[in-house]
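Lab meeting, item 3. Inverse folding demo.
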């Protein structure tokens, strides 16, 4: 029998975490390795328990920055985002898709469907709850991650534009230096840039970064 896929979850509601733990433990092919309500514990848990799948509550990661960091550090990791009703918005779903989340679920999905979706999404498939895909304004999302910078990539590039060092960027965003370098590699590829300076210039020209405010002229 093949080894089960390990699942780590981050959810702000203890009752939901406990319910998810029960669902995972009852599902053949899945193994529960832990749950938390804190993003930093998720980062540590990914390093120590080496899960195959991370389930994230949209309340904990509304802009998908944590999802993007985890996937950038480990592209083989499957991230499933469970959306609360207040986060059923095009912006939140776009952010999760752009970050690379492969499983997008509504929080009121029934237990058996949620388990099958999580299991199906790893390691190469995708699952998007129809209630999210059919929300107003969701048509034509496609795979926009190849066309625009994500919010975290814009954060990194904005700091580069200010002359911030890789080490300081890493400390500022609570990521590793290697993750900063990986972000810049992806940024250059998406913008078709030769180097960092070209990436910054292209981002300003295309509107991916807002132009810096000019200092007022002396009188």
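The presenter then showed the designed sequence:
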């Amino acid at each position: 029998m093949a080894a089960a896929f390990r699942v780590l979850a981050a959810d702000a509601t203890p009752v939901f975490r406990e319910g998810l733990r029960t669902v995972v433990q009852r599902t053949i092919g899945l193994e529960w390795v832990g749950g938390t309500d804190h993003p930093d514990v998720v980062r540590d848990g990914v390093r120590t328990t080496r899960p195959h799948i991370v389930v994230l509550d949209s309340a904990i990661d509304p802009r998908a920055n944590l999802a993007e960091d985890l996937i950038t550090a480990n592209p083989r990791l499957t991230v499933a985002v469970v959306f609360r009703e207040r986060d059923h918005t095009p912006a939140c779903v776009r952010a999760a898709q752009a970050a690379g989340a492969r499983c997008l679920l509504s929080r009121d999905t029934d237990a058996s469907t949620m388990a099958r979706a999580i299991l199906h999404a790893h390691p190469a498939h995708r699952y998007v709850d129809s209630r999210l895909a059919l929300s107003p304004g969701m048509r034509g999302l496609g795979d926009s991650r190849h066309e625009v910078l994500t919010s975290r990539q814009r954060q990194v590039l904005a700091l580069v534009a200010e002359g911030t060092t890789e080490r300081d960027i890493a400390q500022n965003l609570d990521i590793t230096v290697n993750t900063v370098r990986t972000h810049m590699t992806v940024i250059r590829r998406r913008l078709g840039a030769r180097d960092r300076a070209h990436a910054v210039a292209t981002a300003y020209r295309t509107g991916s970064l807002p132009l810096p405010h000019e200092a007022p002229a002396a009188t």
